Amino acid sequence: MFGQNHKKTVMKKMFLIAALAVFGMSQSDAQVKFGVKAGPQLTNIVGDDFDDSDSKFGFIAGGYANIRFSEQLAFQPEALYSLQGTKGEVMGTDVTTNLSYINIPLMMKWYAYEGLNFEFGPQVGFNVGSKVKVDGSGTELVDGDYDFDEVYGESPETVDFGLNIGAGYELPMGLNFGVRYSLGLTDIVKDTDGKNSAISLGIGYTF
What we know:
CATH architecture: Beta Barrel
Largest sheet: 8 strands, antiparallel, barrel
Number of strands: 9
Order of helices and strands: HEEEEEEHEEE
Number of helices: 2
CATH topology: Porin
Mean pLDDT: 88
Strand content: over 45%
Low-confidence stretches: none
Helix content: 10-25%
CATH class: Mainly Beta
Radius of gyration: 19 Å
């Protein structure tokens, strides 16, 4: 698992990106617009300790600010509620792990041709909920909803750092579509090899 020094370094880099974007906005005729977005996503936990995990469906919902520096370059900070997790087998029974985050992506966007754009950037996520649903009786678990630590023996990390990459298309009327892949840099449980992974489809509207 990444240490505290590594986390601090990643955080500093994220704030540096945001600071540079704000500085660039103050030095240019940047246009700022706001919007909302939502959509489904396919999530999983990947790592040696989650080899048998399967993907599950979740969703994202939230808002963003699009800071356009030029025809080709923009900075887009977002605030998204994200339902993530995985499906798998724990203690001899099938379980669905649901992890809820407030994610803050800081995306740099390059507009290659008209509304077609490509994006890349870091994000920090804050865990605001963690539940495990048991769908069938096993050796130790019976049907029902459990707290995360009751099943895994420990609570998930409260902060999750990650990286995003994606592409999208924006229509002149404000409607936009995008696909994004997110990979966590932080193990979700201390001393366990398992990181968040998500492919999301976002449908948004810029005011």
